Amino acid sequence: MVLPPKRRLGGGLDGLIPSGKPIPSQIQRPSLTAPIEEVHPNRSQPRSHFDDTALAELAQSIREMGVLEPILVRHRSQGGFEIIAGERRWRAAQRAGLREVPVFVRELSEKEAFEAAIVENLQREDLNPLETARAFQRLIDEHGHSQESIASRVGKDRTTITNVLRLLKLPEAVLERIGAGQLSEGHGRALLGAQDTKAILRLASEAVAKGWSVRETERRAREASGKATSGRTTNAKAEPSANIRDLELRLSRSLGVRVKIDDQGKKGVIHLPYSSLDELDRLLNDLLA
Asked: Which of 5, 26, 102, 248 is within CB 3.0–4.6 Å of 70 for a Cys-Cys bond?
């Protein structure tokens, strides 16, 4: 399946499968149909949450139109196939009462299969922030990756990988809220500013109960850590928060210049430097496109 350019990450699945490596035709068949009971979920699947309503909707679509995209699988030593990517389609096909599903067979190692599953889920934006962080940590712990190599695999900046992994420093109760969608990744990074575990837990509960924005959560976390100054008695400039630094980085990558954000609470200024009128024209074209 060819995804729109904006949603492609790195080299996609092809980037994880060594090129020039011949695979016998009897092992890798471009596509075929397999009995649904011979297709098994992958215990290493990075995605752990499948929305029940979305599954029901997909099942209804499959009843009407069938499974339009094959499920990516590899052979199992015990017989049958193990899913590399497409477990949600397989689950929905079961609900729809299908007896067979289309599959696409690739003979990948355990490491390659796990990497492919991560990339496929990221391309589809199927992983929540907690699942993404845990998948990246597994690539480090179980498959010997560095943050740099993960960034190369998934087409993201190393700083982005670092920020995602920082979420795992949060207490488990807060991670559960992020996994359930009650708090965003931005909320999680903001809560880390409180440093004290009890304060983080308290602030997380209040953020959910009171519907705090990420910015409000950052402010409360600074207060809890004692970093907030009353009455602004000093002219020293506060360090930008993790979320502001992340936004600066994403804007810089998108626009091709070093963007700085002067955050002043509920307002601020975005600085876009340019070194020539030609560069100014390019920036204006990018912003107005």
From this structure: 102
